[in-house]
Amino acid sequence: MSVPGTYTWLKTADRIVQNAKRQYTRTEQWTASDKWDTDLYEAAT
What is the mean pLDDT of the chain? Predict the structure, then answer.
């Protein structure tokens, strides 16, 4: 997926869930922004 301009990605969620059959599903959520507040989002540095 491409993001317009000079946006940067920051992982905002990461969850692993096990179902009844002992299979795992991982869900990652990524958010793009042109500027991150590094006081709130240290990983954006």
Answer: 86
